[in-house]
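Look over this today:
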Amino acid sequence: QVLSLLALACLLGTVFYFASTEGASLRAKSAVSNMKEFSLFNEWIAEHGKAYENEGELMMRFGVWYATHHRIEAVNNAKLNFTFGHNQFSDMTKQEIYDQVLTPNMEQYASTDYELAVFDDNVENPTSKDWKKEGKVTKVVNQGGCGSCWAFAGIASVESNYAIKSGRLVKLSEQQIIDCTDRDCAGGWYSSVFYYLIRNGACTDREYPYIGKPHKSGGVKQCSRCSGVTNTRSYRRVPAGDGNVESAVANNGVLSVAIDVYPMMSYSGGIFDAACSTNINHGVTVTGYGVAGGK
């Protein structure tokens, strides 16, 4: 049996933001004279397989990318505890990221039907824990243009906790959750994952592969059935606080959490420790904890 734990985390925010479309073309025109950066932009285009409809869009995207590039340099030159780098989102405006990648106001989907986890303060946790190194975490999967982060966060917790209990790491199906619950690509909350799996069991990803959108027939979602792999028994919400999260990870396993990911869309490494934000818009998992550089 699998006990899936649920945590709500407030991830640290930052003062560094991406460009909006306003002024992007002007920045592009002034920046295009810098052939080094335009050359870097073209290398980035090739790396990420980007294609633009016309020269106007090319220049607008270069303007956004250019502003992102200089914010990345500003962060890295500041010698903070974390670094930024380019990724597939570097030419997207803030509004596009919110519309196409994130789930704004994600907490609106949160369930109030849960029990709080309780931990024994007399139990000393190990100084570090990494379930990924222990082989209990599946590979990262790209959710694409579907707002299904909540399904991925919930499924990842079940996968890992099942692996911890059974010794078998099995890739489970996010597509089953998108098709068979009352939420889909428009956002949701990972308690919907646990609630469904308690009653139905989980399909493997091989049986029910991810397509990044609901299966529909006549405009109605279609839910397929399979032989359930896991026997999820219950889930708990972890009370706020680093100590509680540490205890949950150390003693129970991987956690599903909700964070504000926008401030770290260019994150590439290190310990992200800027100011805290409560603008929850993305579901992820906590797979471990530890100390690095005194933090």
About this structure: The CA atoms of residues 183 and 192 lie 8 Å apart.
